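Model: Ready when you are.
Researcher: Fold this.
Model:
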Amino acid sequence: MDVINKLFGEGENQTAFQMSLRAVVIFVITLLLLRIAGRRSFGMKSPFDNIIVILLGAVLSRAVVGASEFLPTIASATVIAVLHRLGAWLGTLNLRFGAIIKGRKIILFRDGKLNHDNMRRALVSESDLYASLRSNMNVENFDTIESAYMEINGQISFVKKQQGLDLSDK
């Protein structure tokens, strides 16, 4: 036990070496926890997925600086990772539950009309929507766009109108 205290320090007073060694251990543990949580925890970037990033950072930093005891900190971080994985899994089994924890897309434009109520709900102005249209679709108006959505990750996506086959040319 004395060797562990010498290597990792105790409480909030560690040397640079001790804190660095703690950081290495926490890095490895965090990597394992993110494997438990699943790839979506960093890939999807929805509010549900951002929770794990924020909470793991907050909780595990306490173990690095010695503000909390090591094992209880790792235990709480493990619970967070398992809860995230469980929530994501349950969300795939039950669409209603998935919508509650992950959210739903919001229709911003459809049938040639902007949906101003949904735009207010999504906190998207017309200028925001047009800027996203120019950036993502390289067009300045909605002539070639069928619909636009605020996705659960906060991104605005567009669906192009289907190009009909003109058989009169043949």
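Researcher: Now this one.
Model:
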Amino acid sequence: MKRIMVLLSICFVLLFSSAYASEWAIDPDHSNAQFRVSHLMISEVAGMFPTINGTMTLNDENLSASSIEVTVAVASLDTGVAKRDAHLLSGDFFDVAKYPTMTFVSSKIDQTDQGLFLHGILTIRGQSQPAIFTVTGPTAAIKDPWGLTRMGASATATINRKDFGMVWNQTLDNGGAMIGDEVELQIDMELIRK
């Protein structure tokens, strides 16, 4: 009798929790990470990392109890200029040979009148720092033509690259810097319900 009660309790917990939480996977074919940074103090250069993956646990009753983990393959970097990509992947910046991935692991989600904010730890070049992403979405879930349930979301944050050990720069004749310290990050995700 005791064994039956334990089994019933486990089943109840599983049924109860599944009613409130769902598991999602980032679709790597329809997701990417991007960045923008000042160049010569007169324009911005953009790049992307098309190879990302990760998972999200979505609490359907309480969005702030949800969580997400994202991993970005640094070697997938593409700015459209091969020479610049090689420099960014070198030891001056991402040092991809030693640090092949960047990660973000959420610690909490704040849903306020100002929007949805994703707090967590961002790790780049082996250095971890707290970061806050502003979230657009998640969108309403839809069924795709193949019967899968999907939703989308975007998250943006501004970081200081020097906090992650990327200090390389050159001083311009006017005293300015070739590359800005502040970098805008954006993660665009399409998620598939598991």
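Researcher: Key takeaway?
Model: Residues 169 and 179 are 6 Å apart (CA to CA).
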